UniProtKB/TrEMBL annotation:
InterPro entries: Carbohydrate_kinase_pred_CS, CARKD, Nnr, Ribokinase-like, YjeF_N_dom, YjeF_N_dom_sf
Gene Ontology BP annotations: metabolite repair; nicotinamide nucleotide metabolic process
UniProt protein name: Bifunctional NAD(P)H-hydrate repair enzyme
SUPFAM superfamilies cross-referenced by the UniProt entry: Ribokinase-like (SSF53613), YjeF N-terminal domain-like (SSF64153)
Keyword Lyase carried by entry: yes
Function, in words: Catalyzes the dehydration of the S-form of NAD(P)HX at the expense of ADP, which is converted to AMP. Together with NAD(P)HX epimerase, which catalyzes the epimerization of the S- and R-forms, the enzyme allows the repair of both epimers of NAD(P)HX, a damaged form of NAD(P)H that is a result of enzymatic or heat-dependent hydration. Catalyzes the epimerization of the S- and R-forms of NAD(P)HX, a damaged form of NAD(P)H that is a result of enzymatic or heat-dependent hydration. This is a prerequisite for the S-specific NAD(P)H-hydrate dehydratase to allow the repair of both epimers of NAD(P)HX.
Binding positions for (6S)-NADPHX per the UniProt entry: 61-65, 131-137, 161, 260, 313, 360, 436
Keyword terms: ATP-binding, Isomerase, Lyase, Metal-binding, Multifunctional enzyme, NAD, NADP, Nucleotide-binding, Potassium
Co-factor: note: Binds 1 potassium ion per subunit.
Length: 523
């Protein structure tokens, strides 16, 4: 499991070491890790000696890290320049940098555009303007410098701890931000590096241990690795039969949106569920059966199911009635439900804790609006997109159920406050029907997972997941499978565009390779 923390959590963990006078040692470890990563980046492109690096340094400890790292790089033969962005700089860091022969330029007295040109001409730019101590974003000349530099498109940007302007706790972004190729982060990954829009500015994230890791509290954000997902994936045994594997009831599609039903039913079928019972109008059912002859069409009274998927493409009175009826039947039987798209507006007053909502940003904004949260002003899609971590948590709290918010990074919030973030997909997945495929995969996993979720000695317990957060973990597994399937499918086309059908086509391959990984680790 990858864990991420708030800036405050990192500071709390550092405090005992700072109190015992080890602050300077921590900074040296951070700077060394940063310098090492710069060396790696330079060597991908050219030889180190004679290569140039410009560090943009703020006045806090983040600037100190950058200046110490640059002094180490100067000693390894790089040409180093520091642009001091504030009226002061970390004194020891600056002294070390000057002693190593680095060139110092002052932003205060210089022209931001000119200095941006200098920085853009170097092989690597280190962004050490603001770290976890930032309040808001870059301002004044530093903001101008960064805006200009971003426009010029530097060859390689390495961010120190976080890209300056990205909120380390939330991933909120205060523009302008210099988008990094690599972010080297210290002591623990910052939550803002695993949540959009911050994650989109961070590039590859490299964690440098500085000796505080054992002092960290429970993470703010978690990300399942391939190994974690493999452990949690349901798998059939010799004793399995189709009913014991899990049956999924699906209310999806409508006269108008036939494709949504086709996609989610087929995605569920290829994700390992024992059987799918489909409910919808005849026109949609014909298409569903043509694509997935393994599914059953039940026009009204459904047979027994272990979970429901309700909502993709649901439209019009007839199908909305089926959705409401399925909600009631799930409530009566205590069954888990995935609520997607057209069914999000039909939710009953109170939903049980084993239901999962899967909105995109626009749907989440509408949902939050309908909850009439006291004191909250109307939430727009743009609000959700700029603060997804905040709003997905809020929605989980207010509804009392797990909420999966779709995006480049998909966030899954449990009402307990535990949040997962998965980001294995590709931007090509922003295509019609992609969410229907995710809904099918999740429904399928839910129908298959019910028993494992309560097992005190099973994989969920082994990963330290409390019973109340296990539905969120199932949703995170679905998100990682979906993202990996998109990336795998796009790779077949050398990184080219995708259709939802292509994503779906890769799902069995992803499930197979994850399972194989799990098997190879057991051997
Ligand atoms: N405590 C330590 O010894 C360690 C700290 N580390 C580094 O220290 C950083 C945190 O250091 P700081 O707490 O000094 O914080 P920062 O380096 O983020 O900067 C805080 C300083 O910038 C000013 N400032 C805040 N917001 C600003 C804004 N929007 N525009 C302009 N100036 C602004 C503040 O007044 C303060 O002087 C971490 O991100 C990490 O890079 C690492 O070296 C690990 C060890
Ligand atoms: N830029 C992106 N990068 C990666 N994945 C994305 C991106 N944009 C969207 N996705 C994924 O694509 C899917 C889109 O779902 P949704 O918006 O419901 O589409 P639809 O309603 O057409 O099925 C989600 O799983 C989302 O996480
Ligand atoms: K920074």
């Amino acid at each position: 499991m990858i864990s991420a923390f708030t800036g405050q959590q990192i500071r709390n963990a550092e405090q005992p070491l700072l109190d015992s006078g080890e602050g300077a040692v921590l900074m040296q470890r951070a700077a060394y890790g940063l310098a090492q990563e710069v060396v790696r980046e330079v060597r991908k492109r050219r030889k180190l000696t004679g290569a140039s690096v410009t560090v943009l340094a703020g006045k806090g400890n983040n600037g100190g890290d950058g200046l110490f790292a640059a002094s180490m790089l100067a000693r390894r033969g790089m040409r180093t320049t520091a642009v001091l962005a504030a009226d002061a700089a970390h004194p020891e860091g600056l002294a070390a940098f000057e002693a190593a022969g680095g060139r110092v330029l002052h932003l205060e007295s210089g022209d931001p555009e000119e200095l941006a040109v200098v920085a853009a001409g170097s092989d690597v730019v280190i962004d050490a303007l603001l770290g976890t101590g930032a309040r808001g974003g870059l301002r004044g000349a530093a903001a101008e410098l960064v805006a200009c530099l971003q426009e010029l498109g530097p060859a390689c940007v390495v961010a120190c701890d976080v890209p300056s302007g990205v909120d380390a706790n939330s991933g909120e972004v205060h523009w302008p931000v210099l988008e990094a190729d690599v972010t080297v982060t210290f002591g623990g990954i910052k939550a803002g590096l695993l949540a959009d829009p911050g994650e989109g500015c961070a590039g590859r994230v490299v964690l440098v241990d500085i000796g505080i890791e054992h002092l960290l509290a429970a993470p703010e954000l978690r990300r399942l690795t391939a190994k974690d997902a493999a452990l949690l994936l349901p798998r059939p045994t010799r004793r399995s039969q189709k009913y014991s594997r899990g049956v999924l009831g699906v209310v999806a599609g409508s006269e108008r949106y036939v494709g949504a039903a086709e996609l989610c039913v087929h995605a569920a079928a290829v994700s390992g569920v024992g059987m799918v019972r489909y409910q919808g109008p005849e026109a949609a059912a014909r298409q569903v059966l043509a694509r997935t002859p393994e599914s059953l069409w039940e026009s009204d009274e459904p047979g027994r199911v272990q979970a429901w998927l309700i909502g993709p493409g649901v439209d019009g009175n007839e199908q909305q009635d089926r959705a409401r009826k399925a909600f009631r039947s799930a409530l009566d039987a205590g069954l888990p439900v995935v609520v997607d798209a057209g069914a999000l507006s039909l939710l009953p007053e109170r939903c049980p804790a084993n239901w999962i909502l899967t909105p995109h940003a626009g749907e989440l904004a509408t949902l939050l609006g309908s909850l009439h949260a006291a004191g909250e002003v109307a939430v727009t899609r743009e609000d959700v997109e700029s603060r997804p971590l905040h709003f997905v948590r809020l929605a989980a709290q207010q509804t009392g159920v797990t909420v999966l918010l779709k995006g480049a990074s998909t966030l899954v919030a449990s009402p307990s406050g535990v949040v997962f973030s998965q980001s294995e997909g590709t931007p090509w997945m922003a295509t019609a029907g992609s969410g229907d495929v995710l809904a099918g995969v999740l429904g399928s996993l839910m129908a298959q997972s019910a028993e494992a979720l309560t097992d005190d000695d099973g994989a969920y317990a082994a990963l330290g997941l409390a019973v109340e957060d296990r539905w969120a973990a199932v949703a995170a597994v679905a998100a990682t499978v979906h993202g990996r399937a998109g990336t795998a499918a796009s790779r077949v086309f050398d990184g080219g565009p995708l259709t939802a059908s292509a994503i779906m086509g890769a799902v069995p391959h992803v499930l197979g390779s994850l399972s194989a990984e799990c098997d190879s680790r057991k051997r």
